[in-house]
Amino acid sequence: MQLRRWLRRPTAAGDFVPVIDGLRFVAIMAVILYHLNDYLVTKTGRRGESDWLSDLLAHGHIGVPLFFALSGFIISRPFLAGTVPRIGHYFARRLTRLEPPYLVNLLLIYTLLVLVLGMDALELFPHLVASALYIHHFVFGGASTINFVAWSLEVEFQFYVLAPLLLAALGLVGTLPRRLALASLVLLGGWAHQAPVVAHSFFGLTLLRYSGFFAAGILAADVFVNRWEQRPVLGLTGDSLTLLGVALLGSGLSGAAWAAGLMPAWVLLILLGSLRGRWSSRVLSVAPVYLIGGMCYTLYLYHFYVISAVGRLALPWMLASQPLWFNLVLMSLVVLPVVLLVGALLFILVERPFMVWRPGLRSRTETASAESQGTHCVER
User: Fold this and answer.
1) Least confident residue range of 179-183, 224-228, 245-249, 284-288
2) Taking burial as the number of CB atoms within 10 A of a residue's CB, which of 21, 52, 133, 142 is the most buried?
3) What confidence tens digit (pLDDT) does each residue in 151-203 have?
4) Which keywords does UniProt give here (predicted)?
5) Which pLDDT tens digit goes with each residue over 290-302?
6) Angle, alpha carbons 90-91-93 (nearest 5°)
């Protein structure tokens, strides 16, 4: 019970939605397994080998867009519920919640790159600064050379900056026009996500390409806050919606052109179905699932480096005579427990303290209000 208290994210009373943390679990596990698969096939020279499990895990990159949709849901929820935060507290909360753990991560990796890999400290320093300011892609035209997964944090930051303005504009119109506008953004964002003119250009690592997923999260939050939250009737219809969304998402990931251009719409179906489904919500609300999901930010920042460190020790034990799927299972059994253990320790020691740190808040009411404004995983 004490361990569960340490591992659970602090939230205001009544604000905790376990399904959302359950979806964070799905997203972070997809990303971890994606990188584990990539590490193994690269190090063993088996890239390109046809294997059902490796082919499945190679689609785990969809976990990042799912995180974006969850950010849209979480950030927009208080705005849509009518409890609009003061803009100063909104940005202070983003910075005090996310920046300190991120800086610790960047400084640690920077030190390891210099001391262990022998990289030039002065040459690397501008990349450290640009990464810390969430502008590495804008300055250097690519993902961070300190922590390459931080490209998604820069996309998140772009959304955080624009979200208050967008949500204020949406608040000026009625329910139907607002939802039609959001649905249009979901569809346009689906085009932007797969269009070569966006995906294969400078804009491929910016908010423009992933805007549809954030819009999907906002639309799901609008339905949840204004229709479902006070009438949480769960049923098999929601489960059917979840399964349909997963099937259509799989079609898009497998290369079906008609489905690939609607990826944010399929994520929207999964969000709505998970919130409304009897069985999907039950599975996502199991304690180990939502607890791991709540640690997704720390897991996201550190998982690849743990995979690399532990994988280096595990590689000699892989069996070249066995199918790739067998070695993936074997590697997962060795690496995943260490990833989760290291992630849990760093979550407790580094990330969680900043979840309860409320600089400048003078009352319990203000603190509760700030707690309700948590971010995605990023708070991933």
Assistant:
1) 224-228
2) 21
3) 999 999 999 999 999 999 998 899 999 999 999 999 999 999 999 999 999 99
4) Membrane, Transmembrane, Transmembrane helix
5) 999 999 999 999 9
6) 70
Single pTM value for the model:
0.92
- Locate the domains of the chain by residue range: 2-10+32-231+286-371
pLDDT band at residue 379, thresholds of 50, 70 and 90?
A: very low
